[in-house]
């Protein structure tokens, strides 16, 4: 499974209709990327009770313990 930081960028890019490389604001300006990835590292997604919510690129991003990335 891809790290949450990569999945967030891919979700934003898909919603915006661009490639992830075209996103001009670093994710690290909104959240500690290493901490986000470490939070879910090594866990089976269905067993991780954590969820993280933060603002990025005009969206409220929710990364759930199931591995899902939701944008609002």
Please, how many domains?
1
Percentage of residues in strands: 15-25%
Assembly classification:
single chain
| Alpha carbon gyration radius | 12 Å
Could you explain how this protein is built, in words?
By secondary structure, the protein is an alpha+beta fold. The chain has one domain. The chain contains two helices and three strands, in the order ααβββ. It has a three-stranded antiparallel sheet with strand order 1-2-3, with helices on one face. The radius of gyration is 12 Å and the shape is globular. The two termini are 23 Å apart. The mean pLDDT is 89.
Describe what is shown at a glance.
This protein has 72 residues and is an alpha+beta fold.
Explain the layout of strands and helices.
Elements: H1 4-16, H2 33-40, E1 52-56, E2 59-63, E3 69-71
Antiparallel strand pairs: 1-2, 2-3
